[in-house]
Sequence to fold (410 residues):
Amino acid sequence: MEYARHKTHVVHVGKVKIGGGNPIVVQSMALGTFIDPDDIQNSAKKYATEIIELANAGSELVRIALNSEEVVRSIPYIAEAISQEGFDSKILVGCGQYELDRLIQKYPDNIKMLGKIRINPGNVGFGNKRDEKFERVIEYAIKNDIPIRIGVNWGSLDKYVVQKLIDENPLSDFSNAILRKAVVVSALESAKKAEEIGMNPDKIIISCKVSKVQDLIAVYTALAQSSNYALHLGLTEAGMGNKGIINTTAAFSCLLQDGIGDTIRASITPRPSESRVTEVTICQEILQALDLRYFRPQVNSCPGCGRTNSDYFRILADEVNNYIEVSMPMWKEKSLGAESMNVAVMGCIVNGPGESKHANLGISLPGFGEKPVSAVYRNGKYFCTLHGNNIFEQFKKIIDDYVVEHYYLR
Fold:
């Protein structure tokens, strides 16, 4: 399905193209580890391990916090470690807050190894130092040809902008409407300042992060109507588990279907010991569900009911999902388009044959009281019938043969 995309400037971040109708980019953030000031090199290798895990999972950009001198000193070692795994340091996005101006001045050669810098207008500087520090950061980015993301967060809003809006609306309650307007005004005014300093609009990405779904939709709709900057979507502080996943999916889906958003990140809270790769998978699944990008074959399977025969169809669906997950890295290297394949695993005769015919490959298992045979369909037509106790092994070979026949590079 093709959606009309909001027209934005194209921003080049290393080899990644953001905006201008290019594929929507998946971004994540590394949690990071303690950087031992007495052992920067080995600490950096540990940090790089997480970055590599995220990149291998499909994160095209990985954000790191520039929150200390030790982290900035570790950048060359992180870059070296990830390059050994085939990743350029330009996949790294440096997130600067209060310390950014000072760190750029002290370690200019390290920070220019990054692909992009994130600036939070609310935290780059305060009082009469705010504009001065912002200008120095922008001038540094221009000099070193580094794109910036002006990243406003309603948890750290520019107090000057908020107060100005309150003064302009003295009879209004301090409501979400004011906050929505404040984040948009802060982002657009900061982008305008960056352009006045000399930065080209095709070097600017904007984000306005809020934590409520309707606020995010309203804010980004306003941004899309007011500018042509590339937009980074993020529902900040989305939460943990199903809450974070569902809220992020709801917000992103509404905006992406309206053509708004050029790069996305799922800002969910990982459970203890949970890998941050989960946030990459969430973004990929959202894009794939909307037919905007494809990352791995889709397995459709029914939920099961009284007609399905014991647990076998659920076991088979799980086996097929796991087999495709394991096989996809090899298919990615040898094939073109296998990620768009659709496979159906169905549990009875009611919807099984019909759903299987809609897929590239489908198998319809016997339901309760049905003849113990499993019909397989290929490209909408009956292909064969499987019997016996090793149906998964038989169906796995059919999947392999289909991938080789339809997707392998010749």
Remarks:
- DSSP finds 13 helices and 17 strands in the chain.
- The chain has a mean pLDDT of 90.
- The domain at 298-407 is CATH 3.30.413.10 (Sulfite Reductase Hemoprotein; domain 1).
- The longest helix spans residues 312-334.
